Amino acid sequence: MITGKFPSLRLRRSRKNDWSRRLIEENNLTPNDFILPIFLIDGNNKKQPIKSMPDVYRYTLDNLSRVVDKAIRKGLPMVALFPYTERKKKNELGTEALNEDNLVCRAIQLIKKKYKNDIGIMCDVALDPYTTHGHDGLLKFNYVLNDETNKILINQSILQAQMGCDVLAPSDMMDGRIGEIRKSLDKNGYQMTQILSYAVKYASSFYGPFREAVGSKKLLQGDKKNYQMDYRNSDEAIREVALDIKEGADMVMVKPGLPYLDIIKQIKQNFKIPVMAYQVSGEYSMLTNSINKGLINKSVILESLISFKRAGANAIVSYYADKLDKIL
Ligand code: PBG
């Protein structure tokens, strides 16, 4: 492998000039590498700041077109929709998830009607925006029930597919849900609806700001460790992905992002499947706050985003996705 040695070999030769560094670059970013998360809220003419996420907002549906217009203009392939649900619409069972007039359903219809296939729509499949306890599934004696939750997730999936969602993204970490959702989609005529499985989702404290954004933070009872993965493990990540591929996932997600680059790499090396990385809310807020305080230069954003590509990610879910022209 090593073909020479100092002084005849000097690796700094190719680093000397910018043109040369550009010539030998192994990784780079384009708008195609990004998915933009959008937070939705009921009401009129609102662009509501989120306290823990600088420069990220919740939008009412009458403002949604402006956000999607911008995403398309910037060449982003997909947006991901997340609803903030009012307390009075939440209950123990998260039934608002199955309301065909809920915020996400109305948003999907609005985007599909106006933009057809100019941009993809991805939606979370999970109950946490809708439950009074803040968990992704049904809670019984502090345990999230698996098979009972799957039944609801299947219906949530069918509903979102029916509204026009292109990519269903189960983020709940229940066992067996990918296979069951795939089967039901096919049976109901949604053979072409894709599944992006949050196959590797760790029980992480980096999700804090997101939970504020969707209004589940103060409600969450306990933690999510009985269903989301233990961050001490990586073999388990391989098993999760292997299972989800067998069950019919089109793509898999690793989440959070930066602390889990080793996992992204292992999965890309083990399975030839599209891998998405989620640069989650806590990562976004940490970087942005430090930049805003002048502690670090904003080029850390590009450096972090490229690291996902270097590790093997095909694309990145990022709250920076609509701010790239300021970064790239
Ligand atoms: C909920 C969900 C979470 C995120 C995406 N979907 C939070 C959680 O599991 O508690 C986190 C995203 C982020 O932090 O940016 N199923």
Set out the fold topology.
Layout: H1 18-23, E1 34-40, E2 47-50, E3 53-59, H2 61-73, E4 78-83, H3 103-115, E5 120-125, E6 139-140, E7 143-144, H4 147-163, E8 167-170, H5 177-187, E9 194-201, H6 208-214, H7 235-247, E10 251-255, H8 261-270, E11 275-278, H9 281-292, H10 299-311, E12 315-317
Helix pairs in contact: 2-3, 4-5, 8-10
Bound molecules: ligand PBG.
Question: How would you characterize this protein structure?
Answer:
The chain is of the alpha/beta class. It has one domain: TIM Barrel. The chain contains ten helices and twelve strands. The strands form two sheets. An eight-stranded parallel β-barrel has the order 1-4-5-8-9-10-11-12, surrounded by seven helices. Helix 4 packs across helix 5 and helix 8 packs parallel to helix 10. The chain starts with 17 loop residues before the first helix and ends in an 11-residue tail after the last strand. The site of ligand PBG has 11 residues, from helix 6.
Instruction: Quote the average pLDDT.
Output: 97
Q: What is the total tally of β strands? A: 12
What's the CATH first level?
Alpha Beta
The H/E string reads HEEEHEHEEEHEHEHHEHEHHE
- Class derived from helix and strand content: alpha/beta
Spans of at least 5 consecutive residues whose pLDDT stays below 50 are none
Identify the CATH architecture: Alpha-Beta Barrel
N-to-C terminal Cα separation, in Å?
33 Å
* Helix share bin: 25-40%
CATH topology: TIM Barrel
Rg from alpha-carbon coordinates: 20 Å
User: How would you describe the shape?
Assistant: globular
In which order are the strands of the major sheet placed? 1-4-5-8-9-10-11-12
Bound molecules: ligand PBG
